[in-house]
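new request in #modeling-help
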Amino acid sequence: MDTDTRIFIEQFGKPIEQLELNLSVDCVLFTVQKGCLKVLLTQPAPKWGWMLPGGFVFKNEHLDKSAQRILQQRTGIAEIYLNQFKIFSEPSRFSFKDFFNALDEEKASYLNRSIHDFPTRVLSVGYFALVDFKALSRIHSEETIQEKTIWADVKKIPNLQFDHEEIIQAALLALRTELKLKPIVYNLLPEKFTMPELQRYYEIILDKSLDRSSFQKRMLRWDIYERLEERREGVAHKRPFLYRFAWERYKLACEKGVNFSV
Amino acid sequence: MDTDTRIFIEQFGKPIEQLELNLSVDCVLFTVQKGCLKVLLTQPAPKWGWMLPGGFVFKNEHLDKSAQRILQQRTGIAEIYLNQFKIFSEPSRFSFKDFFNALDEEKASYLNRSIHDFPTRVLSVGYFALVDFKALSRIHSEETIQEKTIWADVKKIPNLQFDHEEIIQAALLALRTELKLKPIVYNLLPEKFTMPELQRYYEIILDKSLDRSSFQKRMLRWDIYERLEERREGVAHKRPFLYRFAWERYKLACEKGVNFSV
DNA sequence: TTTCATTGTGACAAAAGTTCACAATGAATT
DNA sequence: AATTCATTGTGAACTTTTGTCACAATGAAA
């Protein structure tokens, strides 16, 4: 019996009978590290290439919960900003038949099933998620799945399984579009951050440089960031103020119809 | 045998074996008529209430094609602006069991199948579509399905089947959000239109009044509408100029990063 | 003590958005 | 035939927002 295949299909312990085999979720988890926008890639077993963290939806499970579960299994974090951005439904995007054949072994019989028991079309609902890289390193969850993972620069994505390269490009587009509508960058930053840091993150996501003075004025005019008394310490120059995202002010700004595009 | 049920399930002629019974598409077709934003509702048979035009996806059919087919069957128009905005996946949103029971007849046996042959969860991919009301009245397609339909004011939606009321509200939100990103209103208008008409359509969609002078200046500054030599004739006052959406200019504006929010 | 990259801020100009006003228009009314 | 009147195109004046530039403040590193 091929344990890897079983693990892949059975979602790390969930019996196959309790899975919607025609419905999967794939998560594009973005983070900013070393000045680059990165996405999490996994390799459940050495025989497979890199792919997005994802999996089949449980019977009776909400899609959002499914995405949340998949990310929690990998990061240990329960509350991650999630955005369902697109459904990938190309009939040929994933084939159980090809998948089992590619394994070049005893195929579906591993699961005591005929290949005809598997659906011919598997949908994937694409989610993008945002997380502060530093928050990840502080997490030590015992639930976290042990599988090989890397953070790949969005500008240098390796070849991926299935249609996952397409999913990442669509996620990137959706992230940038959403950023014109809502100030979601704060999900990538720690609770307290400086204006130059906020600006840097915008620049990294949008892949273009912004003017410092007008950026600061715009952010302050939105009035959704609370300036703290503290400043960032230990810098070799003037210490920048720390800011914090202010939910109540943000709600007010939304009601006023503030345009959050930069 | 219940012909209506067969027609409902079998998608007007498509054998049940060729349908993805766990995957449906529902279309929220918007139009502007008599100063109101309206959506198309259908009633395939008197025993059912109002619902959105929709149906099961064919095996091997692309989702976009499916939505296009469904709308073409109802409107006769082949090219309609389409936007896949959300997936409705609540496990209990549609149940074949409840559906057949509600019919209070010989249930699934109509289709020579056991209820266990039907999936327990049916997804719906939501599309919203935009069409010029006048274009509809000029269409005389022989393919058009004969079923009872109405145009319902979005402010006065009757009780609908399944989760279709929720789908309409989500579509309305998606339409308004999309309108901040792209000038998609032109899909609701005829090829030639005046500035006051364009403004009126924005006001109807966003459900708020806009200033005439600043609206006109904004539209002209985007430089995506071509002013024609013609004017609207037969009006009891100064004749307004006619404009036309200019694709090439629009593409240039997108490259320049024009913000299309009003 | 000096150097130096970075930050907060303000002056100024340019661009965009708002408000108001007025002449032009042409069917409808008298 | 003259008058009425709601609507339109446009421009002036003003406010707000954005873009550009400059300069002093800062504090670790040299």
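bot summary: The first strand of chain A starts at residue 19 and ends at 33.
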